[in-house]
Prior knowledge:
Elements: E1 3-6, E2 9-12, H1 18-34, H2 36-40, H3 46-62, H4 72-90, H5 100-107, H6 113-130, H7 136-141
Antiparallel strand pairs: 1-2
Helix pairs in contact: 1-3, 1-4, 3-4, 4-5
Amino acid sequence: xxxxxxxxxxxxxxxxxxxxxxxxxxxxxxxxxxxxxxxxxxxxxxxxxxxxxxxxxxxxxxxxxxxxxxxxxxxxxxxxxxxxxxxxxxxxxxxxxxxxxxxxxxxxxxxxxxxxxxxxxxxxxxxxxxxxxxxxxxxxxxxxxxxxxxxxxxx
Length: 155
């Protein structure tokens, strides 16, 4: 299978985004691993660490997520990625018998990453549906008689 990198995106012959999705999550995990000193620091509050994760790790992992085809498998992987980050911040070992709900309660947050990605996809869809090519804007604003009256258009 031929894979090409264009503007930071992995493009495959079949047009699937699974390799791009996995690459983005791996890059996000690498950034999270490079912040290990911050995650282990006792002088930084947990709430600040969570804000740093959302500001530094999540954008790397979700860059270009508007074009992803989110199947159930990818949704599960996003949830796992989010929980791994929270467990690193809270210093909960993978061998500890702590549920995801316990981790979320201890961190004082709810699952947000999947909802954020879906909101970004929806916003991008709305943007592309409102987009008009050159000349279409004038035609859309004219009434049926062609007199050029302006219709009420959203700013």
